[in-house]
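ok so i was messing around last nite and threw this chain in just to see what happens. nothing serious, just curious
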Amino acid sequence: MSIKQFNGEWVAREDRVRFRFNTSEGEDYSFWLTRRIVQGLIAGTQHTTVKTLEKTHAPEVAQAVQAFQQQAVAQQADFQQDYQAATQHPLGEEPLLVVGLVINQQDEQISVEFQLSTGQSVHIQMEQHVVQVMVTLLNKLQGTAQWGVGLLEAAELPVLSAGGIPPVVH
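result:
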């Protein structure tokens, strides 16, 4: 599944983020993300990226490179385009609650599995730059919600070992 566009909004009465994405295959997915899940997505993808960069850089350099790349994406992100909902809704039109995440690195792509309250799961693989756009959007939304779970600066990231375990949030 290839991601075409992301969309999100913080819904105050739910105190959740409604997160949507559509694919180049014409599918539309809609989820409710809690504060804990947003925190897991942001932190998990940051750590996975740093872990990958550590294969070619020292840990401190990898953290700085990741922070620089994320900042560059944030400065270039365009959140002014209208979201174009797709015609196919494999899980229905109503958002489903995400209750867990599994984040892994596979070659040059990051794999995210959204585990849903229905017992189903949605698995997506994204290139690094697509992940950074998603994280930029989620960081913006968590800032609006005043959750305090946003992006960590390079100095705040813990140093990861090469054999680290991928983050899992349940």
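not much to say yet. The longest helix spans residues 35-53.
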